[in-house]
Amino acid sequence: MRAPRTVIAAGVIAAMTIGVAGCAESDRDNGEDQSNATGGTFIFAGAGDPKNFDPIFNDDGESFRPIRQMYETLVTHKPGTAELQGGLAESWSNDPTGKIWTFKLRQGVTFHDGTTLDAAAVCANFDRWYNMKGEAAQSQMIYYADVFGGFAGNPDAVYDNCKAPDASTAVVTMKKYKGAFPGAFALTAFSIASPAAMKQHGSDTVTQNGDSFSYSAFANEHPTGTGAFTFGGWNKATGEITLNKNANYWGEKAKVDKVIIKIIKDENTRKQELRAGTVQAIDFPAPADRKALADEGYQVLERPAFNILYLGINQKNNPKLKDLRVRQAIAYALNRAQLVQTKGPGGSVVADQFLPESVLGYAPDVQKYDYSVDKAKQLLSEAGATGLTLNFYYPTEVSRPYMPNPQEIFTVLANDLQAAGIKVNGVPRPWNGGFKDDVQQFGKQDLHILGWTGDYNDPGNFVGTFFGRPKVEFGDDAMADMFTAVGKADATVDQEAKRTAFEQVNRDLAAKWLPAVPIWHAPPAIVTTKEVQGLVPSPLTAEEFDTVSLTK
Amino acid sequence: MVRVVSRRLIQLFVTLIALMTLVFFWLRSLPGGPVDALLGERATPQTREALIRALGYDQPIWVQYGRFLKNVVTGNFGNSIRTGEPVTDVISRAFPATVELALAAILIAVGLGIPLGYLAARHRGRLLDNATIIVTLIGISIPIFFLGYLLKDWLTQDIHFFPPSGRISTGTDNTDVTGFFVLDGLLTREFDASADALWHLVLPAVTLATIPLAIIVRITRASVLDVLDEDYIRTADAKGLRNATIRKRHVLRNGLLPVVTTIGLQTGALLAGAVLTEKVYNWGGLGTLITDSISGSRDYPVLQALILLAAVVFIVVNLVVDLSYAFIDPRVRVQ
User: What is the pTM of this model?
Assistant: First the structure.
């Protein structure tokens, strides 16, 4: 009989594989021990690819995570809060018109290429943004276009000029007051980059190729800021971004030698990597996993909620929705407390207005809509809207920090509405494959769920974004007085007056206009192993890794 | 032979042009699009318009199609919307990952499948045969997703034996030469990296191999059984030929023909299976690229190139299968 030979061969192959694997295993262990002895490598599992590392051409969290470690902004946030504090500028002030901003720069700060941060370098960055050439490049500067209103030659552009009276003073003059400042100076997109490095590596060259763009060597291979970490490389085949400790950092130097941001898109795989000990922290764990991971001894770091999920109401397609009583009936019909309990990520709270409590202008005394089917039915009947049928759009193929599970949220809300006698036609649409178009471009929906994570601490960034101008999402120019009120509040220079104005806006939004129903504020989380110390979760998801240390 | 190959190449060219046209118009008929993906949630309407102009989406569709054809013919597939890199770079990085995985899976499937099928046939009706039939039935019916998560839960979470995902341990210094991590380690004498990559390859390859393995076992078994019943085997046996000679010259050679066809078909199917396997194991290959390009970003440029690549691979694999017939069975003439 020769047959057993095959079996023997298979056995030998299996034994060899296990042997080789054994080697791999032990090598890996050695590598970890060595790295710990020298300050260690912090491995953080992110959820998506960055686009590139030129701050101004980015607007997404996955790009901003590595960018934040390498670059700094003039103004920044106190760790763990949305409160402003000095960044590259030790202090800042503005004149009574609100147009002239003076920054006193920190001394002794150098960029990663060895050049000095001074007022001329700051002005070079402002001038670069304003004078960016070409529609391709401009179309990718999402935050700049939004906050600064446009570019050189555009009558709506807010920026005027930047002067450097001395090396440590930069004076930025705007053409008009804009409520977004100073908060917006802390946006990662407006990080200060080395003018020398930008020039050397052709930072402004953005060329269109097919349906997308090519970025410069500066954006891809030579990002140069002042941050606590320098760029070590981006291995796209393994999905790893390496950042090295900046030994010349002006402030307290990073505690770990190296940070690796590993991109793992599947949330279940991120969790498994954490459990296997191959990464030390994961972003955006599934809400359902949080408790289990905490029970297993992992640290679940909740970010203070700086977001909002709302049920949008489009008044254009169904005339009944123009009636405030019908919109109020919808608000009463929703059992939001139960939704928060059953579907909300840990730490979620019911929202009564469209901005978190920590933001200026939050009014403690807005009209509340506690769950009441009877009131809902009564209001519908008074408005002659019994038997109302509404098309309810919700997104699929997506998970957002404020909306980890859209399908489940929809199901609960739709059931609540049906219980109050409103017939619901559910319309699922892929996030990028129709939902955003249908809701924000074409306004096909009557109801929809959507939300927002704040960029900086300003009511305009929440309420202004949603209700400061006519939007297809809510039925275009359905409420002219609302736009006027929000616009006025946003244009108020005096901070106390601005607070009062926005508090009133929030009261009116709840009682008079109700263009949407706020649902919840849901804090997203980071989960780390026990050995990770000093990671401060940020409400703006703007964690900085220089404070992280590893213990064993 | 030359005529056959050149005719196939012409077929390939015509198929590709037709496919490109179809894909171009199909993708553009879908709701949503790259503009949304490139802009994110915070763009102003002015930015949106600027982008539409910059990308030429304000021009008639036939102008866009002409530009697309011209680019493709000159080998320019554009840049990925998701990552901003040239599509050729994105694909040439993902391609070796998937080929490495598919090759490992095929090696497992063929290396175990043919001997097991053969053994089962030789022990027809006995315990080994019956067990093989049951196990392969399970193998064919088990969803890849389920099997992948099952293996992962057991072997990476319950007993920390295999790494849960990826192609190599985080932070490993590996030099990229060919994109095949196991091979690269050998070429550059970074044997640790090579072993590490091989270790990462085991679970995904086993997961991906399960279905083709089960199919190959069953086909081999059935085919060998057919041959064993043939008169010429009995004649050879009666003539007193050695068992080994009969097995090698007659049973295996004749029994392998349908198996080769199956292997060819399964190689194509492996690419489809790779979509799920790669998702489960965070394997940065073509499968991951396809899902990323469709679900998140409507990455047209990558999708277009991927569909063309899939067509080329499928047609080439079929050609190789046809040609290999002639080598196995001289009676088959390629025409």
Answer: 0.86
